[in-house]
Design a protein that fits this description.
By secondary structure, this protein is of the alpha+beta class. The chain is built from 15 helices and 12 strands.
């Protein structure tokens, strides 16, 4: 048996093609590829696709260190685009993939080399985009789609490649409830031929959903879940399962309003027994605001309900961000098949293939959104609508987070006014008027925030921020004018409340600035993302 051993190809298409031709001419029976297909050269996508085609015909291939690094970076790119969907990087990627499909269409002229020209146009344009980025130059379109399909097929990343428990919460707009947990347990040995890759995926309902001070669950009512198409479901055959949640990548600061929280985190979103839920990989308790990082996003029921709904919308719409990339890779592989068969590609043939790929993608997206929303939402019809949904939903998350923070500031100022009211007998007429005016402003601001509709919330938050400034000013004036009268304890309480309100204002400023800066960010910081851990 003649065996061809090839390694360190590093994206060098011409050299690799020459080696394959030489091997074929010498009657090689078996091909073995020893890694490092990507890196350095201009055509890693073509090289990887060629190797995979040979593997399908019986060749052996192993992953090299450059390939592992490229795939890991492809995973980080996918996570970054998902977590920063309104960033310049995400928009540039979508535009580049749209241009790539246009270039493929222009190359489909039916000439003898048209199929080769179509696949070359896709490779050239996709490579040019990744080469233009600051952090993802070794990523290929094939690697990116491979990582997306990997995330969609196996639950490993949502388990953070170990054992993870998610704590799920829902809100009806009046009360936040603890729904239960989803535990992902790693097997002794991963087996991709087994359901969930061998992972145990189990939902356990809360013992008492109304008690958000604990995370006690009822193990006797545990339900096994199946993972597929990016969803955890209790019944894979149901049109609308009773449990259907999707893993999403989010930026932590979206929920904490802390500028420094730039790490990418896994978040579950979807429906459990008809309730819209959100799940974090750490318990959050309503009586522990210090150690519950996402307290403000969870335990202001009105705002929480809107946040949960918005995150679910983002979770569905963000799948559309990779629409053009999926189509481009599908066309690339189809055109390569035609080229290998010496068949040309015409514009009509390309359009039919593109339409079929688009329909398959849209059907898959429609099914996922229908399941996670309990049939209440529809998937966006195209990337433009998806971008609009994402932008509006991200704004809604920030606005509702800001509203929750404002309510905390108003509570702090109300506490200070209560302290000052104890000294009303020592106040003159102007001071009493100022005290009563501030108290009335607190009531009016709280009412305005609680009654704001999703359409008016952004404007209401801006107005009530100004009102909070006025309340703070009145409290400060009263505290200063009563300095000789107030007890030390009262002064300390008022000072602590002022610090809380100042932090609220700072957090809101940072959240708004982060949202504005993201739009122009072509290299958002997602840290190291969620990476495989050593076994």
């Amino acid at each position: 048996m003649r065996i061809a051993l090839m390694s360190d190809i590093h994206g060098n298409r011409e050299a690799f093609a020459a080696c394959l031709e030489h091997a074929a001419q010498n009657g090689v029976d078996r091909y073995v590829f020893l890694g490092d297909f990507a890196g350095y050269g201009a055509d890693p996508g073509w090289v990887i696709d060629t190797v995979m085609a040979r593997v399908a015909d019986g060749a052996v291939a192993v992953l090299g260190n450059h390939d592992a690094a490229a795939l890991a970076n492809a995973g980080l790119f996918y996570q970054t685009i998902s977590a920063y969907p309104t960033s310049a990087l995400a928009k540039n990627f979508q535009q580049a993939m749209s241009d790539t499909n246009d270039a493929a269409t222009n190359a489909a002229d039916g000439s003898a080399n048209s199929s080769q020209n179509v696949s070359d146009a896709i490779t050239k344009n996709a490579n040019a985009f990744f080469q233009s980025t600051k952090s993802f130059q070794n990523v290929t379109l094939a690697g990116l789609v491979a990582m997306e399909n990997y995330y969609q097929s196996f639950p490993f990343v949502w388990a953070e490649f170990g054992n993870t428990t998610y704590y799920l919460y829902s809100s009806d707009g009046k009360t936040t409830s603890f729904v239960g947990t989803i535990s992902l347990q790693k097997p002794t040995t991963l087996d991709l031929t087994q359901q969930n890759g061998g992972y145990s995926c189990v939902f356990k309902p809360a013992v008492n959903p109304s008690d958000t001070t604990t995370v006690n669950v009822d193990g006797s009512k545990a339900t096994s879940l199946t993972y597929g198409n990016g969803l955890f479901v209790d019944n894979a055959n149901a049109d609308v399962p009773q449990i259907a949640v999707k893993g999403t990548f989010q930026i932590k600061r979206l929920f904490t309003q802390k500028t420094t929280d730039t790490q990418i985190i896994p978040v579950l979103t979807g429906s459990v027994y008809g309730s819209t839920c959100i799940g974090f990989d750490a318990p959050q308790k309503s009586n522990d605001s210090q150690d519950s990082a996402f307290w403000n996003s969870l335990f202001h029921p009105k705002n929480s309900a809107e946040i949960f709904k918005s995150v679910m919308t983002i979770g569905g719409a963000v799948m559309m961000l990779f629409f053009f990339g999926q189509i481009a890779l599908g066309i690339y592989r189809w055109a390569r098949g035609l080229g290998a068969a010496k068949e040309p590609t015409t514009a009509d043939l390309l359009k039919k293939q593109s339409d079929a790929l688009e329909k398959a993608f849209q059907d898959k997206l429609d099914e996922a959104v229908k399941k996670i929303s309990d049939g209440r939402q529809k998937a966006p019809e195209n990337p433009d609508k998806a971008n609009n949904e994402i932008s509006e939903s991200r704004d809604a998350v920030v606005d509702n987070g800001n509203a929750a923070r404002l309510n905390e500031g108003l509570k702090s100022e109300a506490s200070s006014l209560k302290e000052l009211a104890e000294y009303e007998s020592s106040m003159n007429g102007d001071q009493v008027v100022k005290l009563e005016s501030a108290a009335e402003s607190v009531r009016e601001s709280s009412k305005a925030l609680n009654e704001a509709s999703p359409d008016t919330l952004h404007e209401v938050v801006g107005t009530q921020r100004q009102a909070l400034d006025g309340i703070q000013s009145n409290v400060s004036d009263l505290t200063t004018s009563l300095d000789q009268t107030l007890s030390t304890e009262a002064k300390n309480t008022i000072a602590e409340n002022a610090a809380t309100t100042n932090q609220v204002q700072e957090d809101i400023n940072e959240a708004n600035k982060d949202q504005e800066d993201e739009v122009n960010d072509d290299d958002p910081d997602g840290g190291e993302g969620i990476e495989p851990i050593d076994a």
